[in-house]
Each structure stands twice: as C-alpha cells, then as structure tokens.
Amino acid sequence: MSAAGGSNPEYVIARVRARRSALFGDEEYRKLVRMGPAEIARFMEESEYEAEINALGSRYSGVDLIEYGLNHNMAKQFNDILDWADGRLYDLIARYLRKFDAWNVKTIIRGIYSETPRDEIETDLIRAGEFDDRLISRLLDAAEIEEVVELLSGTIFADGLEAAYDDYEDVGVLVPLENAVDRAFYEQLLDGLVVGEETKQYREFLEAEIDFRNARNALRIARSGADLDPTDYFIEGGTLFRAAELAALATNPDELVSKIRDSRYGDRLSNALSDLEEADSLIGFERALDAALLEYADTLGYVFPLSVTPIISYILAKEREVDNIRAIARGREAGLPPEEIEEELVIQ
Amino acid sequence: MIEAIEPLMTALQSEAASGPAISPSAAAALAVGLAAFGAGYAERGIGSAAMGAIAEDEDLFVNGLILTVLPETLVILALVVVFLV
C-alpha cells in the first residue's frame, strides 16, 4: 500500500479514525449553543481539549481561552499526524497542512508590519504545518520583513516572496507579499502529485479547493468594483477557469455564475448559486463553497480506506469543529440566540 | 550425436515416471510455509492498525490482539495437509 513498503498507512489511519470518532457530534453542539463562554471552556476541559485548556487557563479567560485552546489542540493533532506518517503519505498530508505555514508566515509579516509585540504574534500562530519550532522562533525574532524573507529561503515560499519583496518596497503595502505566500501554497498543492487510482479523489478535492479559491477571488473583485487585474490573483491548477477567461468573467458576475453552474460543481452549489443571484449575498455563497468542500470530505475515505483520503477527511472535520466551536463561543459572547448560531454551524 | 542423447533421454524419462520431482512430505512442508507467509503478510497490516488503535484507546487491546492473530488460522488449516500426506 505504501511506497515505503511498511504498514505505515494502516497505523496512521487507525489512529486518525479513533480521533475522528472523538470529535463533537450533533448532541454536543446542541448543548454547546446553549452555554456561555465560561461553560463552554468547562465543557471543553472535560473533553479532548483538557490539556490545552488547563495549560492556558491561568493566562487567558473567556472566549480568548477557548480560541487559543482550539488553536493549540488543532496544531497538536495535525503535528501528531505528520509525526506518524512516513514517505509518500507524509508528502500527501503535508501538501494540505502547509496551509498553516502560509497562515503563520502571513501572521508574522503582518505582525512585524503593524509592530505588534512578539508575544502577541506568537499566540496567534497555529503550529500545525511543516515549519519546526526553531524556524518559527527565528521568524518571530526577525525585526524586519526583509529578515523574514531571507529566513524563508529554502522553503516553498522563497521564490515568490523574494520577487514580491521588491514590489512591497515600491508600494509599501502588504498585498503583494500575502499574495505571494498564498500563491506558493496553492501552487505546491498539485505540484508533482503522483496520481494513482487512490490519489485521484484527493486530487479532485485539491482541484476543487483551487477552483473555489479562484471563484471566490473573482467574485470579490467583481463585487468590490476595484480596478484590479484578476489574472494577478489567478492560481494555476484548477479545472474550472483559465487565466484569460477569468479576466473576462470577473467583469461580468452573471456569466461567472452561469459558468460555475455548468461545471462539475453545479449540482452541489445550485442552491447557493440561486441565493447569490437573488439575494446578492456573497457571504452565503462563500459558506456554500465551504459546505461543498466539506461534502467532498465526507465522501473521501470510503472508497479507498487505506489511502490518504481518510486522513484528509479527518483534518477537514477537525478544522470544521474548531470553526464551529469558535463560532458558538463568539456568537454567545455577542448575545446571539441559540437558533441563530445553529444556522451558522456546518455540522455533518 | 542423436545416438548419444537417446539413452540419456530414456534414462530421464524412466526416472520422471518413477516419481515426482519432490517428495510428498516436502511438498506439504512447502504448502505450510507458503500459508505461513500469507498469514504473516496479512498480520503485518492488521498488526500496525491494531497498534494504532491501542495507542489511542487501551481498551482496544483485546480486540486488537484477536484481530491480529486471526490470519493465523491460515497456517493451522494448512497444517492439516501435513497429516494427510
């Protein structure tokens, strides 16, 4: 099964499946939406999140405690998976988890730009990606963005960041740097992916991720009316759009919507697309894109139980759980009624 | 040339007719060995999955052990051949 010749996938998948069954279900969510932040923290203390809540409990309280607890736990879980996996399996999982590396790099660059103290930047990091603690602490120590760019040479972000740094010096805004980081992440997703029968489903999922990102960017540019060239933000690798096509579509949202409707995602997104046409609500559409991705996650992992797909399915489910609990905690803090919060949740 | 080979051929044929290349007990031993090989291959995957499950939840130790040794039945059934020969 594995290219390394060992039985590594079996081991990793058994552990991941056990963890997946420990995720919160409908019943827990129903209880959680009726709790206040302090009660949610206590509820989490009696669950998988015990260690994190206890460790952070003395420093933070309320919603902050929940948020940091969630981030730490997610980082620990994903790091565990990367620790267990070997060989080809590691490569496949790391492709997706580098998302958190991209997040960390962006957070650090933004922190330096806005001159935020080191401690505050550190709490916002999610150490779930491939970067080790040493690299992260050196990145945190950097005083200038240029230093960050230098430290990242040798990572997947190196080429794009170096080119973007010149742009940054010219214009003085972070957009080119952040774009370069995102682009590096999305372009390595499919780069050199060996596609066998088993990884086909995984590739489809990654392509959907890229397509949705392109669609989202195009719609946002179309909506904002800003004078931006959408091809600058185009990410290669998807199946839905070509760069030149996207430029024409971004000026014409109706055509963009009908293009998505005719694609292979049309069935999954048809309700959301009608909403988008009627209500003009981009938020609703973006949530529908998330839900469609999650639907992929649900079906992943049943066809090839010993491939990478059950692991990716767990990673997505875990991310969703973290988002849900955060939404509940923030919603309760803002005083939203339980029914309204329930609508915001994405529960499988 | 042909005259030289002919006696050899008949000699080989008569030996082949007298018995199989390996004796029945050797064949039986081979069968058990191949079955054991298959069982080992099956246990490799199950064993590592069982270890993963036990690492998450120690209560699964008994289940894991049972499932890990299930392919062992292959060897036991193959052992029947030894008594039949």
Write a short abstract of this structure.
By secondary structure, chain A is mostly helical.
Biggest protein-protein contact in the assembly: A-B, 15 and 13 residues
List low-confidence stretches of chain B. none
Class of secondary structure makeup of chain B = mainly alpha
Query: Could you tell me how far the N terminus lies from the C terminus of chain B, measured between alpha carbons in angstroms?
Result: 43 Å
| Share of residues in strands of chain A | under 5%
Mean pLDDT of chain A: 81
Q: Termini distance of chain A?
A: 29 Å
Q: What does the model show?
A:
- The complex is a heterodimer of chains A (348) and B (85).
- Chain A is an all-alpha fold and 348 residues long.
- Chain A has a domain at 199-303: Up-down Bundle (V-type ATP synthase subunit C fold), CATH 1.20.1690.10.
- Chain A has helices at 8-21, 26-32, 37-45, 50-56, 62-84, 87-113, 118-124, 133-141, 145-151, 158-171, 175-189, 200-224, 243-250, 253-262, 266-279, 282-299, 309-333, 338-344.
- In chain A, helix 3 (37-45) packs parallel to helix 5 (62-84) and helix 5 (62-84) runs antiparallel to helix 6.
- The longest helix of chain A has 27 residues, at 87-113.
- The model of chain A has no long low-confidence stretch (mean pLDDT 81).
- In chain B, helix 2 packs antiparallel against helix 4 (72-84).
- With 85 residues, chain B is mainly α.
- Chain B contains four helices and no strands.
- The chains are: A mainly alpha (348), B mainly alpha (85).
Topology, pairings included?
The complex is a heterodimer of chains A (348) and B (85).
Chain A: H1 8-21, H2 26-32, H3 37-45, H4 50-56, H5 62-84, H6 87-113, H7 118-124, H8 133-141, H9 145-151, H10 158-171, H11 175-189, H12 200-224, H13 243-250, H14 253-262, H15 266-279, H16 282-299, H17 309-333, H18 338-344
Helix pairs in contact in A: 1-17, 3-5, 4-5, 5-6, 5-17, 6-7, 6-11, 10-11, 12-13, 12-16, 14-15, 15-16, 16-17, 17-18
Chain B: H1 2-18, H2 24-56, H3 61-69, H4 72-84
GO molecular function (chain A): ATP binding; proton-transporting ATP synthase activity, rotational mechanism; proton-transporting ATPase activity, rotational mechanism
Subunit structure (chain A): Has multiple subunits with at least A(3), B(3), C, D, E, F, H, I and proteolipid K(x).
Family (chain A): Belongs to the V-ATPase V0D/AC39 subunit family.
